[in-house]
Amino acid sequence: MAHKIMQKFISLLLSAALGAGIVAGAALTFEPAALHARAAEEIDGHRFLTENDGYRLYLKEEDLSLIIEDKATGTIMESAVSYDDGKNNDIWLGAMRSAVVLTLINKSDDTLQADLLNDQVSKTVTTNDHGFTAELYWKKYSLGFTLEVGFDNNGLTARIPESSIREDSEQYFIGTIRIYPFMGYSYLDDKEGYMLVPDGNGALIYLDDKEGRYASGFSGTIYGTDIGFEDSKVETLLWNRYNTIADAEKVLAPVFGIAHTGEGMAFLGIVEDGRERAAIEVVPNGASVDYNRAYARFVLRRLYTQPTSNNSTVGSLRICEADRSHSDLQVRFLFLSGEDADYVGMAAAYRNYLLGKGDLEIREDTYKTRIDFLGSDRQSWVLGTQAVVMTTVDDIKEIYGDLQSEGITDILSVYKGWQKGGLYNLPLTSLSVESKLGGKGDLKSLMNSLQGTDTELYLYDNALLINPDETNATFNVIKKVNKRRYEYTTYKDVYETFYYLTPARSKLLLNRFAKSITSAGTPNLALAGITNNLFTYTYSTEKYTRFDCAAVYAEAIDALASGTNLLLEQPISAYWNDTSVFLDMPLYTSHYILEDESVPFLSLTLKGVMPVYAEYVNFEANGQEFFLKMIETGSYPSFYVTGADSSELIYTNSNDVYSSRYESYRGRILEYTEVFRDLSSRTAGATVTGHVIDGDLRIVTYSNGLKIYLNYGTSPRTADGVTVEGMDYAIVD
Q1: Ramachandran class of 373: left when φ > 0, alpha when ψ lies in -120 to 50, beta otherwise
Q2: What pLDDT, on a 0 to 100 scale, did the predictor assign at position 242?
């Protein structure tokens, strides 16, 4: 194996040397300036096509594979596997070497592969100053499209225009398309580095030899699972009541990447078009083949299960969607070199990309103590339900007064369960306040008194859900593609099932609610539900796609952002520009066994751009570790408190709020405020330029020179002359 890799290295080196004008018999020097003064005519069968300021692009027309060369160092990245270990069949060889790989649907079979090597493909390639276009048509399957590749100082784009997609057969349809799925690949452990996984805040899979431990890789649908295709499943319940398996973290940003750290070259992939119906795949070696790869998989059609009777266990059919998705498909590859060729450089590249597009704006990153309140919930009673009052308006005033006496006046709060009928009386249409909390008058009075101060109180609204036990849910709720109504099960006693509102209905009711609170002089809104959910659905016999859903939600959120003071709970990247604060940033991943390390990719991207608040401190089992995580990621703490004791919630849907009384958290709130207020002042306006992982030690470097050393171990660690005790941190300006 090592011999073959060396042979390949020598071949590439000689090829580059000959292209640079070194004649046979001349002395071979290794001076980069001489060796890479101009482009080689060809590298490994790929001819020179074009270049930008930092890189050169080479193309092989046979399979449309690419080589990207770093002009400064001569380091290359390949889009197709050039070394075959002899273990792979023709199907896998086609997948590893083709620029585009399709899965086709034929009746109830969605496993047929089409590629550029194993199939007879009509191919017309036209080059231009910035890349090429290739018109492709699979004659056997009567389908095709145009691949457009562009290369400039903003990276490489690979695009399939929607208007070019043809499906001329009544037998074969396009299920999925992968574009350059082996870009930046590596074989077993032949390269040092890792792959970036967009799981939660971020994770890495190292490019070491996995020794066949994993049968599959990471697969995450961008912006969350599509519940429109969700089949019924048997949950793992404790005592037939408690769900024991936590949901996976969502893919909040359409990114992936590979870093060859030993060679100082990396790329960040960004799904620009078609992301609403695409997935990120990050697959380590040993999963089917011995190659590490990361790519985007676009879904055009899916099979779904259609029950043949009201009893789904009696029988069902596997049916193909009648119509495919209609969207351009585009991936952008941003290449990074030298010190930038790591996940910190990827985060900086993504931040600059979003800022440059206007999809993100720099906001004032001033620390506020976040304390959210639970107003009321409901518990079952003799006839119906009765209110369980947890935090009244007077309780909030008292808590604010107590904090102000301690010098804490800059406070951010979200008030949940303020509405008549409690937290789960949804949807909201007006400012109708639970009378036992103080009523509309008291709440308006409090919010008006806070205007002009550093304390902000926001009203919480989950605009996705409707409670059929409290509201007529016969109309305006979604059904899945199989025409069965989607039900969200809570596994709680009072309200067991919720439905999803149609996006159009959510938008309509949000407009009503926004008018109600703005006319009352209380225009502070914290929005949830529609901030990180997209789905395919049917309504009134019509089918709507995730693209339709995203368009309606974007219009609704944009309107709210311009008419209210808006905060978004764990928003997907499409809405980052509409919120002044990121609420409930996940600091961890889904803890998949194949992930080698968690990294704060999203936090690195947003630090210095907007305030980011972590999920609630109350419910973290290891409080000190979570405290260090917040310091490491530059995230701020969040507390969920109540005036009454949380034991009052035992018979409500909020029975998982097992610790919330303000008095129990007062000391920690004061302590954390002092720590994070100081840290915020010392990092104001700065971005993270370095993040080092050394076992249990983390070293975070900011653009203003500040360094933070964090020790997650139990024994002291020393770095740069700084000693950090176990489970502690140190800051050096």
Answers
A1: beta
A2: 55
Q: Residue 390 and residue 416: Cα distance in Å, rounded?
A: 11
What is the pLDDT at residue 311?
62
> For all residues of the chain together, what is the average pLDDT?
93
Residues 582 and 658 occupy one common structural domain:
yes
User: pTM value?
Assistant: 0.93
**Helices and strands, counts by H and E, the chain:** 11, 48
**Mean pLDDT over residues 703-708, rounded?**
98
String of DSSP letters for 308-365 = SSSSTTT-EEEEE-SS-----EEEEEEEEEGGGSSHHHHHHHHHHHHHHHTS------
- pLDDT band (50, 70, 90) for residue 726: very high
Q: How far apart are the C-alpha atoms of 30 and 123, rounded to whole Å?
A: 39
Q: For residue range 635-670, what is the model confidence (pLDDT) as tens digits?
A: 999 999 999 999 999 999 999 999 999 999 999 999
DSSP reduced 3-state for 584: strand
Which residues are within 8 A (CB) of 367 and not within 5 positions of it... i.e. 6 or more apart? 410, 611, 636, 676, 677, 679, 680, 681
Q: How many domains are there within the chain?
A: 4
Tokens of 330: 């585009």
Looking at this protein, which amino acid is placed at residue 72?
A
Closest CA relative to residue 151, chosen from 132, 126, 164: 132
Sheet with 76-78, strands from edge to edge, namely 42-43, 46-51, 55-60, 65-70, 76-78
Residue 295 and residue 394 in one domain: no
Distance CA 533, CA 478 (A): 13
Residue 178 sits in a domain whose CATH number is 2.70.98
338 pLDDT above the threshold of 90:
yes
Same domain? For 338 and 275 the reply is yes
